Amino acid sequence: MSTIAPQAPAPRVARKEATDRRSSAQRSPLGVRVGVVTALAVVALLWLAPLLWALDTSLKLESETTAVPPQWIPESGFTLEAYRSVLASDDLITWFVNSTVISVAVTLLTVLVSALAAYGFSRCEFRGRGVLLALTVAGIMVPPQILIVPLYRQMIAMGLVDTYWGVILPQLVAPAMVFILKKFFDGIPRELEEAARVDGAGSFRIFWQIVLPLSRSILAAVAIFVFIGAWNNFLWPFIVTSNPDLMTLPVGLVTVQSTFGVRYAQVMAAAILAGLPLIIVFMLFQRQIIRGVATTGLGGQ
Amino acid sequence: MSVAVAPQQPSATERPAARLRAGRSRQDLVPALLFLLPAAFGFVTFYAWPALRTFYLSFTDYSLLAPPEWVGVQNYAEVLGDRRFWKSLTVTLEYVVINIGVQTVVALALAVLMHRLTKSTLIRGVLLLPYLVANVVVALVWYTMLDAQLGIVNSGLELVGLDPVAFFGETSTAIPTIALVNVWRHMGYTALLIFAGLQSIPSSVYEAAAIDGASEWRIFWRITMPLLRPVLVLVLVLTVIGSFQIFDTVAVTTKGGPIDSTRVIYYYIYEKAFQQFDFGYAAALCVVLFVILAGVALAQVKILRAGDSDLD
Known about the structure:
The structure holds two protein chains of two kinds.
Chain A: H1 10-13, H2 21-27, H3 29-58, H4 81-88, H5 90-123, H6 129-141, H7 148-157, H8 164-168, H9 175-186, H10 191-198, H11 203-214, H12 216-232, H13 235-240, H14 249-260, H15 264-284, H16 286-297
Chain B: H1 8-13, H2 15-57, E1 60-61, E2 69-70, H3 74-80, H4 83-117, H5 121-132, H6 135-145, H7 152-159, H8 174-199, H9 203-211, H10 216-244, H11 248-252, H12 265-275, H13 279-310
Antiparallel strand pairs in B: 1-2
Helix pairs in contact in B: 2-13, 3-13, 4-8, 4-10, 5-8, 6-8, 8-10, 10-13, 12-13
Protein name (chain A): Multiple sugar transport system permease protein
Membrane topology (chain A): Multi-pass membrane protein
Pfam families (chain A): BPD_transp_1 (PF00528)
């Protein structure tokens, strides 16, 4: 594995922006760079091809979706026909509303409950803190899906099957988010809080008026990822709802999938509509989301 | 490891501090309880208690209609002799190996390329986009595109003179197809995680390597990989455990078929519990799965740590 550089000066250039003109004449690393970036761009486009194809298909007449050979631009032009028929049945709108209500509730409550717990862990000394923290970390490693069997039984016992709360409540337990927020709170200097305490502010006021505003960026990151997870969640809503009026979009799409049959334009239109809110969220918060992958995905490292 | 202090020493020096903390501890207990109460309630009701119940139910015969009936280890004995369970386990493992293998290698390559060549947010955004689309929607789109007769991919194959492939309809191709579809969805996310790890490597290290005239290849193996290892371990553990959760794509596309070839472990648990109402047996399957997952996670951390120490 002793791969030695063929030309000593050449690799040196790959370092930063093309500042070194001399060596660029020797091996044209700028050209290489442009080439690689172009290649990356082509790959990126291919990467998105399935999504573009879904969008394209959703804008076609049903009869033209399976034209041979496949066409990007259908002969009779684009149409919103598929969207019209999908939206004509109330189902999709109902599921859309359900998904929105459930995802927003899950996001707000998860962030609130997790932030409270994280702050408790971060600032309070009490017996058993270490044990509880260890439990939290263990909770990150145990996927909650493994609990569906008794959880469903419990929902029956609590009378929550086929209710919003039945879908929402089990999704609120987010040990990973507690852990991430605790790590962030640990990094906030305590002087501010102590000053406020001297001024007579209680723990909750300090939390609400000082700590939370200081943590806006991390709270936003956590909120966005909880929302994405809740919007896309399938297994639990699928198990706990059987009433079509209470289904979320993914569950609804799967249950009617068979009735769509080979009506590709309609399947794709429904899929696009289901994905749209997250695409909009993404466009609005692209930078925060990309940064948030690292903060939430790696446990606040 | 260098700070190995005699166990008794700190307790002696910390006594005044400990006493102080004990005083504070009483003072903190009430707010701490209030802060932790909502989360603790949720954790106990929807996590800890169901976990204990899973364990209990796995020793019972239970169908929701009548109260659980204790049967001892009978469920576990059945699991061990259950041909379908073993099949579902191998199918799941096949899925995880393809899914994680392809995903990790390509995501690592993409992350390194991005790190060395471009800081473009646009490219990162494009990579991440599929992750935002629900598993279910991704599965629907690919199911349509890969349809044996009408899908665009097979139209393309025919155009270049190849035979159409029944991607989801053939026992040999179904699992690889599902694995690769999910690689598509999840790879950008994984690449960004690794990318974040790369950014934590100080650039001075790369500058020093460049001054020494090291090739990119050498830089990758001698600098990037060793320094990236902790992040890579974390990413692997998380993605492997996530990969075992495969359910959505199967539920949308193949529903376990053709001929059991895609009945992954979660789909089997789902069928047992929610289609055949054999909750006790399903609970036993969950416990077995838990043991496997815990073992896999431990093994990963051990193996990758062992590699780590070689480098010092």
